[in-house]
């Protein structure tokens, strides 16, 4: 199958950018899904040692990928320790 794709790309070179952008988009979406699964505080992979990881986060921890107007370094804790 890989040989057929290479043969088609040699005969139709205008398809090369299509393959590059589709492959890049797929790779970026997989990296974003992996980041969501590993860094998001709402996802819990270890129920025995840390069943509620969102309670152990510091108030200045930036878990969002892109924060528009929030400066996480200036945030203070608003609430009791549990």
Short description:
The chain is mainly α and 82 residues long. It has two helices and no strands.
What does the model show?
Its main location: mitochondrion. It is found in: Mitochondrion inner membrane. Keywords: Electron transport, Membrane, Mitochondrion, Mitochondrion inner membrane, Respiratory chain, Transmembrane, Transmembrane helix, Transport. The chain crosses the membrane at residues 15-38. The chain has 82 residues and is mainly alpha-helical. The chain has one domain (2-74). It is 41% helix and 0% strand. It contains two helices and no strands. The longest helix is centred in the middle third of the chain and has 24 residues, at 16-39. The relative contact order is 0.08. The mean pLDDT is 79.
């Amino acid at each position: 199958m890989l040989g057929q794709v290479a043969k088609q790309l040699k005969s139709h070179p205008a398809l090369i950018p299509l393959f590059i952008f589709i492959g890049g988009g797929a790779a970026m979406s997989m990296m974003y899904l992996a980041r969501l699964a590993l860094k998001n505080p709402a996802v819990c992979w270890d129920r025995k040692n840390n069943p509620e990881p969102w309670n152990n986060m510091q108030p200045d921890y930036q878990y969002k990928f892109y924060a528009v107007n929030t400066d996480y370094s200036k945030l203070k804790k608003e609430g009791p320790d549990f």
